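Exercise 7 asks you to align residues with tokens for two separate proteins.
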Amino acid sequence: MKSYRKELWFNTPRRRDYINITPTVEQCLAESGIREGLVLVNAMHITASVFINDDESGLHHDFEAWLEKLAPEKPHSQYQHNGNEDNADAHLKRQVMGREVVAAVTDGKLDLGPWEQIFYGEFDGMRRKRVLVKIVGE
């Protein structure tokens, strides 16, 4: 069995953002040489997420509106966590959107559904953060 590991780095210009990282994960898969196996993609920060969904701007707007209803950013004083920081809402948003995805690798390709794409979700941006890509297989 072979193993491949790479860190992807992001620094979003906004506090919240959704970035399609599918092409980058596909590039990692090509670099790995693995034809059959699994790919794990996970956020290495507790205020960011990796998830699979459709790459459709209306849906991304809906994510933003829904998450803001569930865990509004302001007022910052509503959260016990916010003392020296103001990112409690980002921790909660990450909890809902998830930490990682695992996808099958079949014949050297990501085995995703017809509309599925892999996204990095940022909920407390404007600073450098990383995502781990780990691929194992043959």
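Second protein for Exercise 7:
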Amino acid sequence: MASKQEQLNQINAKIAVCQKCPLAKTRTNTVPGTGNINTDIVFIGEGPGKSEDEQGIPFMGAAGRILNEMLEKIKLDRQDIFITNIVKCRPPKNRDPKITEKNICNTYLQQQLALINPTLIIPLGRHAMEYFLPNAKISETHGKPQVIITATGKSQVIYPLYHPAAALYNPRTKLVIADDFALIPSLIKKYKNV
């Protein structure tokens, strides 16, 4: 049987050649995700931006610098977590991903999550949160863990947070994000092996 890393490499290989939606025509690189496949934490953004499209790595721009800063405050770095997006290719001009694009990429995200099997899934921002909590409002649910039942019948902890990019435009939001991040270590302890 293939190792977890080999299985992830197979998922990444499928993403790299995917032509299932129009985003494939405008991308420079696919951005499948990076990090530790044995982690308890998976961060999920909405989609790659310009820097990510150029480098093939999620959260490499200004929002990524804020994410790194927040991780550092809780004594983690990118090697400790896994980071991916709802869609694996950059939407043109950084527009919001369309429902059809999200639905097409859903298979890849579900494969990644099933393989990694994290204790905590952390959607960053409204679009990523809506994937797991369709009727929620990020302003009301950020920083509040939600237990959902997945399609496979497994319970999963979703911990929605504001997208780090929100901190670029509003210093108060950065403080809120920092407070929400501060709870991550205790949430891992609480929900691990539950």
